[in-house]
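Structure, all two chains, one model.
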Amino acid sequence: MSGTLTIAGLGPGSDALVTPEVSTALATATDILGYAPYVSRVAPRPGLTLHPSDNRAELQRAAEALRLAADGGEVVVVSSGDPGVFAMASAVFEALELAPQYQDLPIRVLPGITAMLAAAARAGAPLGHDFCAINLSDNLKPWAVIEKRLRLAAEADFSIAMYNPRSASRPDGFGRALAVLKDAGCGERLVIFARAISAPDEKIVTLTLDDATPEMADMRTLVIVGNSQTRRVGRWVYAPRQVR
Amino acid sequence: MSGTLTIAGLGPGSDALVTPEVSTALATATDILGYAPYVSRVAPRPGLTLHPSDNRAELQRAAEALRLAADGGEVVVVSSGDPGVFAMASAVFEALELAPQYQDLPIRVLPGITAMLAAAARAGAPLGHDFCAINLSDNLKPWAVIEKRLRLAAEADFSIAMYNPRSASRPDGFGRALAVLKDAGCGERLVIFARAISAPDEKIVTLTLDDATPEMADMRTLVIVGNSQTRRVGRWVYAPRQVR
């Protein structure tokens, strides 16, 4: 008798941003897998096994989750934010494609508040008009693809949410991304650095792209570059609804 | 003594997708404003005044919310999905800019599960790689802007979430959008029509863009066009994490 596999989004950090659907799934799980800092957000209890793993182990973790579910577990794979946005859901379906014996398993994906929505809400409404989301990590795609997408996004006048802008192992990409956008004529656009949103050390900084420097971002930062119309009102930043 | 203004996202429809933070705001509100079908999702109770209004009345509604909050109300403006994505948050900041006397009001934006995240979760993980979100309504922007963004999004190989694809007053735009994408060489891409996600009459259809027709979308549909790598595994659709 097989169990179930649920891929759940924990939101950006605060329990007040976890959907009831996800809370219920966590409360009835037998096994929870994920990157260690996310698994640690779930309280231990009898009958629940926590399986924390390393950041880079997505595909392995996904395969293990499928195995545990096939063995009868009520298995939950947790992601920060939304599991479908630069997170575990794609890895699970990739693993499923590699292991067709599991294709009849009951699988559910439960959405969550992804980082750009939480960051945008704290800043005002910078995603109130057409926008795009780009993962700045070049672990799984060539840097040339990122650069091309940034140029086209600037030309389309999208607001741009940048995930994973900068890490210890990728210290230089974000500076190059800023340079690409300056070169594309976006120097006067507003940029929001949203760090650790909904955590106790949350911090928001807004300035123009010309004044932004690479060191302003780290692994816990979500960056939103406004479109050409994005403006301030008081302490808020928003994208007007109308474009003429 | 002034009150507060909260702009809250109700998610796509199911109560299981309303964050605890939003539920708390609704439970302590004195006034709730919004498009009538969204306001009707809030149960009446003593001490709460419901202010339903028409779909097109965003700016008026936002101004009224500011006035009620300045008069001491605990005012909540509700949107479906996330208030910052093609919803009420931008309208409130626009109204605030027009009424500087309210700029010291305590304002909060509470994020919600926006339609594309709910739709993507039901379909699999079609937003697992870089993507964009485009509002297909040309009420507040020229059609030429929409068309240009679609062409550039195709060239960037973004997955594309299309909000408000088609309505009774805009029957033709979605067909033109499909034609633009076909013309841009996207005919073989997978397209997901996600209708009324998390409601009892929820429906998901996936097919290629070449097989998609305008009538497949209506006001309650969110459309996701995959990128060139988007693929099926069993009944799921996902964007692989890796691009070579």
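The radius of gyration of chain B is 19 Å.
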